[in-house]
Automatic annotation (TrEMBL):
It comes from Gordonia insulae. This is PDGLE domain-containing protein. It is found in: Cell membrane. InterPro entries: PDGLE_dom, TAT_signal. Pfam families: PDGLE. One of its GO terms (cellular component) is plasma membrane.
Amino acid sequence: MTTTSHPRRVSRRTFLAAFAVAALLIAGIVSYAASSSPDGLDSATLRGCETVEVNGAEELSGNCIAQHATDHAMASSPLADYSVRGIGYTNGIAGVIGVLVTLAVAVGLFWLIASRRSARSTSSADGGR
């Protein structure tokens, strides 16, 4: 007697729920383990300069690419620099908020596309009346 084992199928809803939970856990917990050192690009642009503190603010002295850099347009946004503005050490909270916003936008777009397809197929089934 031979038995065949079929892999157990996971429903789409279960898969998406597990994906969302995994994304929230990674954003909320693993982000605290991220390095605070500058990445490769930041490190390369800082070569040749030294960071000095002038009147409580950090400034660059010397000659490097980053010396003439300015803040980007979203620098004053509530989640700039991977943290919640006004609250220190909130990388995980900022990550969870980012994941929730991204999931909400994705679900909204998928819902919009699905409803349009449903309306289009209903219209074609009626003969275009």
